[in-house]
User: Fold Rhs element Vgr protein from Pseudomonas savastanoi pv. phaseolicola.
Amino acid sequence: MVLYNGATMLKDLTALFAPQNRRLIKLTTVARDEQELLLERFSGTESLSELFSFELSMISRDASLELKSQIGQPAQLAIELATGESRYINGYISAFSLEGSDGGLARYSATLSPWLWMLSRRVDSRIFQKQTIEAVIRTVFAAYGALPDFEFQLSQPLKTHSYITQYRESDLTFVLRLLEHEGLFFYFDHNQEKHTLIILDHSRDLSPLPQQPSIRYHSASVTETADSITEWRSHRRLQSGRMSIQTFDYKQPRNQLPVGMPSLNEQGNVDAYEVYDVLDHYSHGTFKDGERLVRQRLEAIEVQGKTFTGNSNCRAMYPGHTFELTQHFDHDRGSAEDRSFLLITVKHEGSNNYLSDESAGYKNEFVCIRHKIPYRHPITVARPSINGPLSAIVVGPEGEEVFTDELARIQVRFHWQRGDSLPQGTTWLRVAMPSAGSGFGHQFMPRIGQEVLVTFLAGDIDRPLVTSVL
Assistant:
């Protein structure tokens, strides 16, 4: 493909790269002067509880730009709004390629990702004890120095977990798994300087779009000076109408804590199909905890029951904020509450007109729900699978031969635990015996220093159990 053909395609190369040249979308990278990169077009997706990703197509006067000089470096898109303000998208270059050159101009492509993406490059195995999910995530982020920028905006305290294991998972997968299972979700907030990860436990306090809190609907055939929604669609999907769970705790074996709850979705004259799930051991210790867990799982189902999709040229749109829909033939008859929508996903496309006579442009597709419906992200990240038992060494205080607690449990150290994995032992583990029960049985307790075989209940890495001595 010929990118540059003298005066025919590009009359003034100097004017093209002039800093004062006004464009709809401006790109800022570490490349400067002769190596400056100009954005031809971009596309990308932002979603609640997902990492954003933008594909950039660029041109430059320098065909010898060192690719590795760009990866991992910050970059920024500035999209000019109808008001003259800018909507910023900040991130880091996670991929960078030279696509071709004809001697006049070179074409490059890049992927723009959030700082959180960097956590996908590190894999670890470690144990956390008696900590909240927030404390664990803060520990993970601390290993990345000044890179993470995040805020926890929680409406209530998080529960303390006795035992959490990261096992052969990337830091990113581990963090996403913890957030999902705790019922937390996130979005990225951008300004002129940076992007910040915002972690929440409820969507009710999410604020309107700062640069366009109200958006008008009108047909695409009508001329409009302000950004507006040109297509609007509503969708219903039949969902389960009830959820019931129960668990098992060996400390209170006769109480399985069954909890059931109907969905709040109004789905017409259909049966309330039930989801019955036997959750992980010790998933909830009280009925209150169980009800909270069921409510969160139901909300993840309910949020998919009724959704709205559309197309627009609203450059101010991004997930994690709400907008009021105005001048729509159907929704204008409803209450103000029913006209308030929360953006879940926005798919962007935009282009400049550096190498063509066509005008620059922007468009998007979006998914939203009514703001009054609590948002909860579905569980999509599975726990790490354990296909068989692991061996470990029994640990205890110096000078002791046998070390147990009042329930005859022992502590072990797995072979994969590193020296900086604190505490050195795991949590207290039960030991399987040939015969055991209320008022009878016998015990042969593993000694400190012995190797034991550890299995995991239902393959759950967070539920270890000693089954034998090797």
Remarks:
- Residues 242-302 form one domain.
- The CA atoms of residues 82 and 248 lie 58 Å apart.
- The chain has five helices and 26 strands.
- The longest helix spans residues 287-302.
